[in-house]
Design a protein that fits this description.
Order of helices and strands: HHHHH
Radius of gyration: 15 Å
Mean pLDDT: 98
Largest sheet: none
Number of helices: 5
CATH class: Mainly Alpha
Bound molecules: fe (ii) ion
CATH superfamily: Ferritin, core subunit, four-helix bundle
C-alpha cells in the first residue's frame, strides 16, 4: 500500500472513531446549552459518517481495501476515545475543536501528497472535508468565546 493509501486508511479510522465519540457528547452533555450541543454534535456525526465513507471508497477506487472493523479502526486511529460520560457544553466544544484541528492538520498533509502525485480526485475529496472542518472550527470557537 502506498503512503497516500496508508494515510487514507488512518483518516477513515480517525473519522470512524470520532463518529462514535461524537455520539458520546451528543448523549451525555449536560447544562443550559444541552440542546445546542446535542444538535451540533448530531450534525457532526452525520458529516463524519459521510466523510469516512467517501475516503474509504476512494481507497477502493485506488485498488486497495479499506479498514472496516472496530478492531482495525482502533488500531489505526490516533483519535482518543472518551470513556467518561459527563460533559459540560464547554468541555464538548474544546474537545471537538481539538479533534477537528488534528484532523485538518493530518488531512492537509495527505491532500498535499495527493496534489503532488497529480491525484486530483483524492485532493478534491480531502479539500471538501477540510473546507467543512475549518468552517466548523470557526463556528465552535465563536460559540465557545
Ligand atoms: Fe440523537
Amino acid at each position: 500500500m502506498n503512503n497516500i493509501n496508508k494515510r487514507l486508511a488512518i483518516h477513515t479510522a480517525d473519522m470512524a472513531v470520532l463518529y462514535i465519540k461524537l455520539h458520546n457528547f451528543h448523549w451525555h452533555v449536560k447544562g443550559l446549552q444541552f440542546k445546542l450541543i446535542h444538535e451540533l454534535t448530531e450534525g457532526y456525526y452525520e458529516e463524519m459518517a459521510e466523510a469516512y465513507d467517501a475516503v474509504a471508497e476512494r481507497m477502493l477506487q485506488l485498488g486497495e481495501q479499506a479498514p472496516a472493523s472496530m478492531k482495525e479502526f482502533l488500531e489505526l486511529s490516533n483519535i482518543k476515545e472518551e470513556y467518561t460520560k459527563n460533559f459540560t457544553p464547554a468541555d464538548v466544544l474544546e474537545k471537538v475543536i481539538s479533534d477537528f484541528e488534528y484532523l485538518v492538520k493530518e488531512l492537509q498533509i495527505t491532500r498535499t501528497e495527493a496534489a503532488d502525485a497529480n491525484d486530483s480526485t483524492t485532493d478534491s475529496i480531502l479539500t471538501g472535508i477540510i473546507e467543512n472542518l475549518e468552517k466548523q472550527i470557526w463556528i465552535l470557537k465563536y460559540t465557545n468565546a
